[in-house]
Prior knowledge:
two-stranded antiparallel sheet; 16 helices; 9 strands; alkylated DNA binding
Amino acid sequence: MSGRFAPRPTRTTVRGGEVAVPPGVPRQVARTAGRIRTWVPDGPLDLGLVLGPLRRGPGDPTFRTTPDGSVWRACLTPAGPGTLRVSAHGTQVRGEAWGPGADWLLDQLPDLLGASDDPSLFSPRHRIVALARHRRPGLRLTRSGLVLESLIPSILEQKVTTDEAYRAWRLLVRKFGEPAPGPVPGRMCVMPPPRTWALIPSWEWHWAGVDNKRASTILRAVRVAARLEQAVGMEPPAARARLELVPGVGPWTSAETVQRSHGSPDEVTVGDLHLPGIVGWALAGDRDADDSVMLSLLEPYTGQRHRAARLILLSGRVPPRRAPRMPRGDIGRL
């Protein structure tokens, strides 16, 4: 564990309350043990499916999975930096957290794992959707409770390939973030605070492959970071409206953000290069579907359109490729 953050006394939270760890914990254990909470979900839970949308590529420095099935997240919480390790143990989920943000992360653990999501409200209207739901019973929609954490990488993903966006996020977080607290696997970092984002020099954006338009949008967003974080307490449509007050943040970006920060089951992404064609192909055999066709096909799922889209993507049914991939650009090498 990093010596920067001294651990507080370990605790275990169970349904009946908290059980204090007895005194006299060995010194070596005390240095690495975090604060602990256990939680029992009310149904099947697949950690990879639930938390996967929070990962921005295989090299995301804020997200790790380990061979034992654990998921690690490094976050900038309202209480400060924190690291969370989530693991499944039979019917229980165990969360262990380190750093100043540990208590906040443990308080949010049930929502992060979909406790505020109600899959029973969803009624499949197509066979492919019903099959995907049957095969993925552990799908829940995560609610991170953090807006900027999802907004900034969503801005980086505007109008570029995912590889370019993932690279930019990885480089910027590693260079300007701080080491994640706790005994993390490998090199993990907490994303920079708003002030640090605002002070990143123009050449660093360029080196990371971020054009001026996206960099300027991020700079405008971090200037009003507090107001944007307040949106987590709003209903999803109102939250999206607040995000879209920032020039450069449109419907695509606000939907991608609110899906993660609020766990909204209905905020479907429009303006995406691939999603309309995938939905159109899966539900109507129409590979050339646009946003209007996609929204029409998803209309029977009103209130649950994002969940329906997730299940369609998980079905694996995509139209055959007939055109080259979106060309990759790298302004950092110009």
